[in-house]
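[User]
If only I could read backbone structure tokens as easily as an amino acid sequence. I have put the entry right below:
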Amino acid sequence: MPPHPAFFVKKEVYEKYGNFNTALKSAADYEFMLRVIYKEKISLAYLPTILVKMRDGGESNQTIKSRVRGNCEDREAWKINGLRPYWFTRYLKPMRKLLQYVQRPKKHNAYLHN
């Protein structure tokens, strides 16, 4: 799954397949990409250029509770679209997300350092 800040689609894709499912709070982007990539099988192109730099984390990774909620929404996104993930998908994505939570850099104030 591509990172959501680097996933661009034409307006026609939204017009044909619908917008984000905002009933899903932290997985609306994930559900949209599942729908258009895996269910509707839109044609894709890879652009080997860095367009977006993003940090690990985000709304769904603020706390363990939010990550568990996000994981439940991810599963709901598959169900909504009548898709079945590979058996390992169910485990790999949550493990990667938990690693982001555990390994995120400590925040510091740059002005405190000389």
About this structure: Confidence is low (pLDDT under 50) at residues 108-114.
